[in-house]
Amino acid sequence: MSGLVGMLTARRGRLARDWTDWASLAYLLLGVLVMFLPVLWLFASSLKSDQALNAFPPTFLPWEPAQVAVPGQPGHLPLMQVTAGPLAGRRLAELRHIGLMAQMLDPARPGRVLPIPVRDLRPVLRLHASWSNFTDLVRRFNFFGYFWNSVLITTLATLITLLINSMAAFALSKYRFAGRDAVFALMLATLMVPPTIVLVPNFLIAARLDLVNSIWGVIWPGVATPTGVFLLRQYMLTIPDDLIEAARMDNASEWRIYWRIVLPLSAPALAVLAIFSVMWRWNDFLWPMVVLNRSSVFTLPLALFSFQGDLQTQWHYLLAMTVLTLLPVTVIFLFLQRSITQGIASAGVK
Amino acid sequence: MTAPAPGQALRRALGAAFGGAMNLLEAPMRLAQAKLRGGRIGWVFVVPNLSVFGLFTFLPILIDLVYAATGGNQLFPAQRPYVGTANFRALLACRNYLDPNTCTRDLFWHGVYNTAEFVVLQVGFMVGLSLVTALALNRPGRGRGFFRAVFFYPVLLSPVVVALIWKWVLQRYGVLNALLSALGLAPHDWLLNATTAFFWSVFVSIWAHMGFYTLILLAGLQAIPRDVYEAAAMDATPPWRRFRRITLPLLMPSLLVVLVLALIRAVQIFDEVYVLTGGGPGTSTTFLVQFIYQTGFAQQVREYGMAAAASLLLAGVLMALTVLQLRLARPKS
Amino acid sequence: MRSVLSGILFAAAAAWVLPSAAHAATRDIRVMCYSDGNECPVTRDLAATFMKANPDIKVTVDEVPYSAILQSLPVQLAAGKGPDIARVTLFGNYSQYFLDLRPYLKDAKFWETAFGPTLDWMRKGPADHGIYGMMTQLTVTAPLVDKTLFEQAKVPLPGPKATWDDWAKAVAKVAKATGTEAGMAWDRSGHRFAGPAISYGAKYFDAKGNPAVVDAGFKAMAKRFYDWNLNGTVLKSTWAGQATGYKDAFNEFANGKIVMYYSGSWQLNRLLKLGNAFDWAIAANPCGPAACSGMPGGAAFVAFKETKHPHAVAAFLDYLAQPANYRTFAERTNNIPAELALQKQALNYNMSAEGKAALAALLHDAATLSPIAYHLQGYRFAGAIFGATADRIGQAIAGSMTLDQAYKRITQDIATALATAKK
């Protein structure tokens, strides 16, 4: 608690307290609302039943019309409170309604159908978290399959990205050879070629290499990132050449120098690239959409988008699916929050 | 807390596997080293990256040139008839360049204008807000890590997720309209009105990306030596002056990097807005990349040539922005 | 040296990447399927019994979203990476890749008699006599009506000869009386638009059979639809909400936000699941001066010529086409059969009285279809016509252009598509 108070009243060190302290605090608190409430709202909504989602105005908690089992009737019937008329105050189950009249049953005496005007009825609400949104989804949409595809693609792509980009960065920073500068310039020139621009030709090449509908078709095109090479090269330039010379004296091979000396020393930059790569891959959307057409190889965002159309009438599933997609990233972020934000900040100013 | 032993064992096993894999490559690499004198061994290290890069970045750009100069709806370049500059001419044909409806390919021009407007608004506001946020975060105190994390969190989310979150908030019977009703204000069909749909496209994309730029600016702020401020405090410089005279000039390099990175990304806007608005209402949030996607992939008769031509025009703009970035980044490295 | 090295590395990478060669003698066929309701699971069940009888054939049913059928499948086919069979709707998108099944069918005559007219839809023109696939069902566009809202507003349901103008007035009145958001909504689709347009005199083709979409009849309906969108009779968000692509409005109908929903028979399964929230019905297609037409349609399992096992593909489709199996499919998926003999029989649908009434209404709707509607549905580039109609009229409704500009754009878009396809 004292931590919270300290946090809220934090001032800029030894400098005098002024209006900027309060303004910045107010701004940050507002920011937290704007940044976080929509996500929170998503989480809350994903627990609502289809009916509760359609209620307006919406409630934060999943209130939904109560259901009741009536002897002699299949399934459950909605429970209603009678607000007017001779039966006012009673709670009855609605069999069905036709136009303005509803046919009601008393759960205790289900033998007789009671006709009651619809306007005299109000649904009885109860708090009910629809975990079935999630369980149904997992059953119907092969969620774990999509999850596994996403994990596999993210992991493999990140490993390959780290390996081949660090190799290239090593060569570009530690050797002098004919064509080196040309290679570097070429990569830089395409630093920002967006995937959209090469969508069609890339598909053609993937088709020729038989990579369509294979996770490798998603992995390969993005592993040689100019950004990664650039980032790692800039970092490796700061590693002193004396270390490498010393190793050469000990008759270490160039390969050994790369993976025993330079790679461990570049760990901070590698970590940043790894974070980038995981982020890119986990959220990658357009290219997988083009290259993967069998639902068995779909990644999570792809499944989410593709079924968006089919699920349009079923927001409860769509919201649950969205939550499931962002949950893994969120959990990782919760644990690695500090190193991720600091890593990116340090790479940004390099 | 898990016991340290299994974790360590796992780490050791992974390390051994990695070391083993790397050692496997030792022999062939030594061979290559013996064959290649001087720095030429560097090529061996560059080649894996370069072949993937060549195959999936460079070759496609060349193929794009072929597509752009050919017509028809065949996928394989060999089967496509040569049309010269017809695709470019069709894209650029307008009777009045200020009115996309007079252009042969009106959607392309809608895309161009919408993208231009989007870039100006999104980049302007985002860089401004990132700066304000970074300034607010650049204060000592225990909450800083928490606030920083909250602002950064949306950066991690997939564009599809971002769009769905906001679609859910903004829909006709969504929570935003409920709040407005509760306050006695009229609810809106936010995504059905050209102006508000555009506003929310800009807003949502700032929401999703701002954290990244904030972090870079925050790092830039933290690199500014503290004693500069303390000297200013001694002189009792008012905060605004302190900001303009000290912070802003010292932050300028980071600010420029952020500006150019944001520009390059904004020009490519597609995913989140496409899922959020579908380019509507009408064409009011149809951007350039959506035009490319639509023309090449989504209509019944696919015009790969037209899509490639538009891609190349976009690539030209991006290339110019990249050169700009390198120019700005050069004095630093 | 460099090229040798990169060659070696590349070969190594390729060897790692390429799937190992197929090992067994079983013939693998892949079916790309999408479901309106439960079509794919039922197909999978039928495939299971088929495989018991044909142990050397392995049928895999991949269920994908409809958007994958529209967007990914054509590219896959162009690259020679398509499935062996797919369930598709806009046949012209795929017709250049169709496999003519005649040489592989045991009894092509049976197919001619069983499916007669719908076989034409998959053909490229009048000179084409190939058999390319099997319609899994017939669909027809039709209005879905919220009877409860009509009763509450005390407005009588328009009769079978009522025009679209009558309907527009009636639903607007009901919406006003009941505080409903809008009178009606149409799926955002040029296919949905075509039926009403034909009823108001649209011909879609000139005397030579070339597309001539924007004519007086087309404009008559477009103007009405435009006005209805602007004055709130029609829910604007469906057509104006996005720049391109399909959008339905079932959710709005299911939640009582519109009085009438112009969609089609494929919504029957979803309607049946609505429970007793309100009373719904399927009405006759509203009339115009020229006709009382909706649009026919439906999905078909089609075969692709890239397949390595044409005999297996034909055997599986032939199995599905057998009356007993076809009947199972129709009854379990609550679909109207395209098989002519079955159309005349009473099928044993497992549905409520409300559902059976709806089915009868749909059969009536199928009987009032105009010949133009059939012709349009069978046209190879119908997709381009439908796409241009929905996008441009939608953009006009959203205010991105005027209606007159939209007409010009529709004509131009279709011409561009035809020119591109001809090259």
Give your account of this protein's structure.
The complex is a heterotrimer of chains A (350), B (333) and C (423). Chain A has 350 residues and is α+β, with helices and mostly antiparallel strands. Chain A is 60% helix and 12% strand. Chain A folds into 3 domains: 2-45, no CATH class; 67-123, Roll (SH3 type barrels), CATH 2.30.30; 141-310, MetI-like fold (Orthogonal Bundle), CATH 1.10.3720. Chain A has helices spanning 2-8, 19-45, 50-53, 132-140, 143-174, 180-189, 199-208, 215-223, 226-236, 241-249, 254-265, 267-283, 286-291, 300-310, 315-349, and strands spanning 63-65, 67-69, 76-82, 91-98, 101-106, 109-117, 121-123, 125-127. Chain A is elongated and about 100 Å long. The model of chain A is unreliable at 1-14 (pLDDT under 50). Chain B folds into 2 domains: 1-35; 97-332, MetI-like (MetI-like fold). Helix content of chain B is 71%, strand content 0%. Chain B contains 14 helices and no strands. Chain B has helices at residues 4-24, 26-35, 41-68, 86-92, 106-137, 144-152, 159-170, 175-182, 194-222, 226-234, 239-267, 271-277, 288-298, 304-329. The longest helix of chain B is centred in the middle third of the chain and has 32 residues, at 106-137. Chain C is globular, with a radius of gyration of 23 Å. The two termini of chain C are 43 Å apart. Chains A and C meet through β4, α7 and α14 of A and α3, α5 and α10 of C.
What are the defining features of this structure?
heterotrimer; A: 350 residues; alpha+beta; SH3 type barrels; MetI-like fold; 6-stranded antiparallel β-sheet; two-stranded antiparallel ribbon; 8 strands; 60% helix; disordered N terminus; C: 423 residues; alpha/beta; D-Maltodextrin-Binding Protein, domain 2; 2 domains; 5-stranded mixed β-sheet; 12% strand; globular
End-to-end gap of chain C: 43 Å
Strand content of the residues of chain C, in percent?
5-15%
Tally of separate helices of chain B: 14
CATH superfamily of the largest domain in chain B: MetI-like
- Tally of individual domains of chain B: 2
Going across the biggest sheet of chain C, name each strand in turn.
2-1-3-10-4
Element pattern of chain C in H and E: HEHEHEHEEHHEHHHHEHEEEHHHHHHH
